[in-house]
Amino acid sequence: MTTNKKRLLVPQSMSPAAWAILQARPDIDTIGFPATIQARDLLALIQHHAPVQGIALGVTKFGDPELDAAQDMQVVARIGVGYDAVDVEALTRRKIPLMVTDIANSPSVAEAALFMMMALAKRGAEMDAMVRTNRWSERLRSPPYDLYGKTVLIVGFGRIGTRVAARCLAMEMSVLVYDPYRSAADISAANCEPVTDLNAATARADFITLHCPKTAETTDLFGAERLMRMKPSAYLINTARGGIINEQALFNALQQGQLAGAGLDVFDQEPTPIDNPLLALPNVICAPHVAGVTREAYDRMAQQTAHNLLSVLDGAPSRIHVVNQIVLD
């Protein structure tokens, strides 16, 4: 490798199309690492290859120690839209942009949220089990019910929440939206009802689906008190981030019949322990944090990540994909 090449570290699981984008650049040396790498091993890898000018991350934690080890970090990119594992303040202090993939996986997450809503309402797992175990006589004891005519509350009206709203409207549902950072006019223009009182809206909803980032403001947003406001027939869906729902409070509420069920793609700890009591409940469906990881979405995210990294190294950052835009000013 010549000394004037810039060095990028990217997960080996990046799609072939994304690798092709990076490897087509003779001025870039691209080094792969396991997608499941632990933080301590990533730090050692960065130290070994320093100076490093750019890195693409999955969900690995990243902050000051890694930036110090890199010696010349110029861009950090997430293969996705969430960045709670990245120390954004550390990057901003050093004027390093954090890049995300914008809308690349938003259709996939929106579909996953709708899938969980339908799987719960239509009692998909239970109906399948009845056929497999010849228990047809039980099918009418607790019939499935429709999304048609039901009310859904969408918490967060960004790239994903807006797509969920469009899909719910297509199912002929009434859509409430809670997002203190979006104007009522924007929400109304999407044929949804803006709500400012989350507690009151919670009590109205047949489904609640979460599409907000995890912040100090949204951690435990749905704790014991708010869960008690839900209809006993209502379902709660989380494809956003673990910690927005208080898991112990959710378990208690489900056990006590304060809500009908929950769909969880994300957990406080991931992988969630096998003895997590939520996993033992028949009215909970789960997924291993894959709502935004369809084949198509991962390819879109990987290619956008490659373009994001190169845009900074080429001196023309793709501004719409930069989280901490202050570093560009």
Main sheet strand line-up: 8-7-6-9-10-11-12
Shape: elongated
Whole-number total of structural domains: 2
Strand content: 15-25%
How far the N terminus sits from the C terminus, by CA atoms, comes to 33 Å
- Following the backbone from N to C, one meets helices and strands in this order, namely EHEHEHEHEHHEHEHEHEHEHEEH
CATH superfamily of the largest domain: NAD(P)-binding Rossmann-like Domain
Rg over alpha carbons: 22 Å
The level 1 CATH classification of the largest domain is Alpha Beta
Q: Which parts are unreliable, with pLDDT below 50 for 5 consecutive residues or more?
A: none
CATH architecture of the largest domain: 3-Layer(aba) Sandwich
The residue fraction in helices comes out at 25-40%
What does the largest sheet look like? 7 strands, parallel
In the CATH hierarchy, the third-tier topology of the largest domain is known as Rossmann fold
User: How would you state the average pLDDT, rounded?
Assistant: 95
